[in-house]
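REVIEWER CHECKLIST
Item 1: Sequence provided? yes
Item 2: Single chain? yes
Item 3: Sequence as submitted:
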Amino acid sequence: MQKVTISDVAKAANVSVSTVSRVINSNETVNSELRDRVLATIERMGYIPNASARSVRVGSSNLIGIVIPTVRIATFAEVLQGAMDAAMQLGYRVNVYSSGGKEQQDSWCLDSVASSGACGLIYCPIASVGAQSHLEQVRSRGIPIVIAFRKNVVPGLPHVYMDDEMGAYTATKYLLQRGRRRIAFFAGFWSPPGSLETVLKLLHTDGQGAYTTLERMAGYQRALQEYGLDLEKELLTISGFDYPSGYQSMKKFLSTLTDFDAILCGNDLVAAGAMAAMQEQNISVPERVSVVGYDDSELAQIAHPQLTSVRQNPYNIGKRAVEILVQSLRGGVVGDVRLPSELIIRASTAVKDF
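Item 4: Structure as written out by the authors:
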């Protein structure tokens, strides 16, 4: 059978060769509709880029592939920066792939790594590894893999992750200590595994670690239980991870007329969007509702009011992931690494005025 070329894919998808190339290299300047069309054409035609031949010519013994959900969110940009800095210090080159938060593109990124001649992979899946068969293709080639920013998603592989349960537990307990008892929780997902009921069924199961949100929900629940409070479904809302999602999720939540006096959000962008929606309704922050974000990004310091947030260290996740990968490549024994988080208190939280 005649080998499918990049020109064949471009012609079938009715795009230029350069557009196909940008999709292959996870260039986020390609709009999502066009990217999906190209990826679907690639999958239908069975096209595999000839990256392995190129890597043989340039030498692949020091090439590491890194797959992340996006570079548009500061957290993952920091993961990438830590990985690239560590790789440079250890004498390795890096190929970066972005899944755009989509499972189909996630699979394509893994296929690209498998054919690239990379000696190792740092993989941050969207959540649970829906692209399991594609990851197995990487493993079948003897390429060592480290899972970053997720916990217990692939048995037998080392994972580097934040202690998200403790981070959310600390944030929730802080709110409880300040008299807040109706604490809403915005559960952020790239792609929710189903309805809220389905999400709750994953809580405290082996599948929990695939979702940072579920790890945080477990910590949130633990703090509530210490104060004799139950996890209430009406206080839970599924959101995304960007500002518009925080804004729209809060508008929808307010329409339910649920009584609440605090909120813990999936990241600082969501928290900022939620605060904007509340400010439109003259709901004062932090007097009436205290708000806690996650990540302690630069946004937390420029938001109004400045945002209390759980500080992570995504840079160290990327750095440690590369260090562990290189240790494995050099014959060392490696295991999981859990990194601590820290609550940074600012003006978006206050003692409840009874």
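Item 5: Key structural point noted by reviewer: The mean pLDDT is 89.
Item 6: Recommendation: ____
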